[in-house]
Every structure is written in structure tokens, then in C-alpha cells.
Amino acid sequence: MANMQGINGQIAILGAGAIGQLIHQQLATQINTTQAALKLIVSHERFEQANTNQQLSFTSLDGNSTNYHCQLIDIASNTLMQELAKVKLVIVCVKAYQVASALKPLLAHLPIDSHIMLLHNGMGPHLEVQSLLNSSSTLSANIGLSLATTSQAALKTNAFAIKQTGNGATSLGLFAGPQMDGSLLTLVSRAIPNLMITDNIVTALWTKLTINCAINPLTAIEQCQNGQLAAKQYQSQIAAIIDECVQVARADGVTLDAQQMTKNVAKVIELTAANYSSMHQDIAHQRQTEIDQINGYVVMRARSTDINTPVNQALVEQIHQLQAYYNAHN
Ligand code: KPL
């Protein structure tokens, strides 16, 4: 258990989705919770569903379930500002399209020596948050920004219960501003299994983005598990998606090897064969997807270059059409 005397401040996780709850559980096992150092900031609707003494339920990969206490904070509560004044690290685990709007109202209340860590699928919100930090006030400009990407996976079985479904690696690195406090970084490294600290987090994000570009929209459109993409019929489309990603990444200053990326995508398809991708699940449940922060990010970054991205563009359009269809029928 980490020595909380050495940790000057508190950790707040923003977002109680599957990954938010997973990271909460992993940190909770490292922190002496009687010192109330770990909080979970949730939407007002989610808070209303909770008890004053809410328990979270966690089922591990080997099927063992545990319940543990969690201190919830309502994002719309009057006490939020006082709570934020004590926070030294905010781990943002909301959907990619919610990151900037969820963080914006919190920024002015965070201490100047605090740190933000983004952990979500896709890319783009890091640029929005960086510009929010630079434009909001001189104080916010001192807040450090780290980015993380994870191959861990979890499924929400109800509002306050998750089941872990995958235990891959997580990469974490500083993107802008001062580095995270050393004791917090040690705690996060101990809590999250297979965590790699990298000084090139943007390359790690582009690598994961390319994997998501190849797998997520195709599984959503074909309504299939990840494993079905191993079939021969998808290989030329997957190769074309990867090729466009590699070209745009290069224009962004990131070198990815197309052959290696093809192997990585095939490996993830194999390792997660029985899983339904997050975009498949979003489409199946008629929710907003992260398409604009996945293939849409590649298309957007290509616009200022002479690189064409017709394959990623077509996937963005197909997913937009599916979303528009159910939005119009709900
Ligand atoms: O990250 C994923 C997702 O579903 O969003 C992959 C790697 C495709 C695993 O399902």
C-alpha cells in the first residue's frame, strides 16, 4: 500500500465508465481509502442513482468479485469547487467526445500544481485540452498534461459494477507542462498493471489509433466480433486503412512502420477475437461513437497536407449514417 503521507493531495477520476471504474479499483487497492484520497466524479444523473455509501463491484479476469467503498462526487454539486481545490491529479476517463466539455468547467478550480491525465480511445481531445489550459488563465497554464492509452478492457455490468475482460499494457507520458508529482507517478505506476512510462506518448497514441481505425468501424458496420476481421475478405481494406494512418502520422512527425502495424492489428484481432469493439457496442446500443476522434482524426489531420484518406473518410461517413439513422428514429 502506498504511503499517503508522501502524496500531497488527492486523486479524482472523472467518469465512471468501465475504464474509469477499472482505474478506480486499481488505485483503490494501492491507497488507504480511510484517508479519502481517491474520488470518482460522476454526472448528476449517475450520482442520483447512487447511495450515500456507494459500493463498486469489481469482477477480475479469473471471475473473483469484490465490493469496495467509493467516494462519489456529483459534477453538478455546490461542493465540487472545494473538492477540486484539494485535487492533485485528475484522471479523465470519459468518452473522447466528452473530454473538453467535461474538463472545461473544472479547470479554474484546480490547484496550479495539479496534473491532468487523459485516458480514452482516439486522439484530438489532447489538443483541445492543451489550448484550454493555455487560454483559460496563467494559473491553468501551469497545470501539467499527461496522456495515456490502454489495452486493458472492462465491461460495465451495471451502473456501479464492472467485469475486467482484458489485461493489456498501458502507456503513459507527459504531453505538455510540468511533469506529474513523483509520488503520484509512483502510485499510478504501481496501481496500473503493465504500465510503461514513455517520453514519446504521441507515437504510442498513433499506434493505438491505427489499431482502432482498422478494427472499430469495420466491426460496427459488419456487426461482428473483432475475430471475424481475420477473414481474407477484410485484408485489403485493413491494409488501406493502415497505409493512410501511417502517411498522416508521418506528416504529424510520427514514424510508424506499415508492416509492423499490420502485424500489430492482426495480433490485436487474434487476442481480442471474442470481444465486441467499443464502437460495435456503441452502435449496437444506439449511442454516440468515437468515430470523429478515431478515423475522423486521421481525416482531419490529413486536411492540412496533400495526403488523401478516402478509405478512412468512407468509414467515417458510414458510421455517421448509422448514427443519423438511429438518432432520427429515437
Ligand atoms: O480498443 C479497442 C476497442 O474496442 O475500442 C480494441 C483494441 C479494438 C479492442 O476491442
From TrEMBL:
Entry GO CC: cytoplasm
Entry keyword Repeat: no
Record flagged with keyword NADP: yes
Molecular function as annotated in GO: 2-dehydropantoate 2-reductase activity; NADP binding
Pfam families: ApbA (PF02558), ApbA_C (PF08546)
Pathway: Cofactor biosynthesis; (R)-pantothenate biosynthesis; (R)-pantoate from 3-methyl-2-oxobutanoate: step 2/2
Keywords: NADP, Oxidoreductase, Pantothenate biosynthesis
Domain Ketopantoate reductase N-terminal: 11-176
Reaction(s) catalysed by this chain's protein: (R)-pantoate + NADP(+) = 2-dehydropantoate + NADPH + H(+)
Domain annotation Ketopantoate reductase C-terminal: ranges: 200-323
EC number assigned by the record: 1.1.1.169
Biological process, per Gene Ontology: pantothenate biosynthetic process
InterPro entries for the chain: 6-PGluconate_DH-like_C_sf, 6PGD_dom2, ApbA, Ketopantoate_reductase, KPA_reductase, KPR_N, NAD(P)-bd_dom_sf
SUPFAM superfamilies xref list: 6-phosphogluconate dehydrogenase C-terminal domain-like (SSF48179), NAD(P)-binding Rossmann-fold domains (SSF51735)
Role, per record: Catalyzes the NADPH-dependent reduction of ketopantoate into pantoic acid.
Similarity field: Belongs to the ketopantoate reductase family.
Protein name: 2-dehydropantoate 2-reductase
Organism: Shewanella maritima
